[in-house]
Amino acid sequence: RWYEMLQHLKEHKRKHGHFTIQTDDEESLKLRNWIFRQRHKYRINMLSEERREELAFLPSPQLPPACLCCSLPSHREWALEELSKSERKEVDKGWMKRFESLKAFKAIHGHTKVPQQWDDDPILFSWVFRQR
């Protein structure tokens, strides 16, 4: 799967001449998220030497240092800065929807420890996990 995504990225660069991925469809969104994950893994030294070499052609943006006044990691700040205003609104809507679901869960159960296999909202566990 990793090499498949790398090939998609190279094809995008060949076709468009740049690495800016518009999130017009699900495949583009997957590729964009994959790039963000690879940059993050590179930054925290979690990529194998082989994969680092494979990604040598990918420009490495100047990522800002982690914000000291909040808990948002710098790679997420950078990712949010890359989003257009309309994309940010969609991200915010999705985030608020999940946040409201978590608040409803807490109101019912008295805690935020969403079970991994919760039938009422199967996505909520993974969302909460990612927020932590």
TrEMBL record:
Pfam families the UniProt entry points to: HA
Lineage, highest ranks first: Eukaryota, Cryptophyceae, Pyrenomonadales, Geminigeraceae, Guillardia
Transmembrane segments annotated in the record for this chain: none
Limits of the Helicase-associated domain: 1-56, 93-132
Organism: Guillardia theta (strain CCMP2712) (Cryptophyte)
Protein's recorded name: Helicase-associated domain-containing protein
